[in-house]
Specification:
Blueprint (H helix, E strand, L loop, with lengths): L2 H10 L5 E3 L8 E3 L4 E6 L3 E5 L2 H12 L4 E3 L5 E5 L3 H19 L7 H4 L21
Antiparallel strand pairs: 1-2, 2-3, 3-4, 4-6, 5-6
Helix pairs in contact: 1-3
């Protein structure tokens, strides 16, 4: 079962989310008019942009979930989508992300001063040289 597809279909019915390609290169992302909220990697993972402030607020619950992976210094979390209740968890986190995206951030807050792109963002690098060749 492709749980990411089921989750994306559920979330695409939300009026505040717009389907779009993700900044990191994932084919399916969902965003508001101002920022990316969630995108999907493979058949069983989703990355949610909760914001650093919302992660701090929800940290005890997030750490207690085996389906959630936090990333140091990032406003993104990864949700492993193995069973139906993981889709429910994702929907709850997307709702929190939508709330965070519309909340006023304190002046000079970390979320407002630096871009917070998905940590899986594709980076362009030079082609590695063969060992022993200049």
């Amino acid at each position: 079962m492709n749980t990411a597809r089921h989750a994306s279909e559920r979330l695409m019915s939300w009026p505040s989310l717009i389907a779009d390609r993700a900044h990191c290169g994932a084919e399916l992302g969902l965003r508001t008019t101002t920022q990316e909220i969630v995108h999907f990697h493979g058949e069983h993972e989703a990355d949610v942009h909760l914001t650093r402030a919302m992660i701090a607020k929800l940290r005890p619950a997030l750490i207690g979930s085996t389906a959630v992976r936090l990333r140091a210094g990032s406003g993104w979390v990864t949700v492993r989508l193995d069973i139906g209740s993981d889709i429910d968890l994702l929907a709850t986190l997307v709702s929190a992300a939508l709330q965070a995206s519309t909340s006023a951030l304190p002046a000079g807050g970390a979320d407002s001063t630096s871009p917070d792109r998905c940590t899986r963002e594709t980076r362009r690098t030079a082609t590695p040289r063969a060992v022993g060749r200049p």
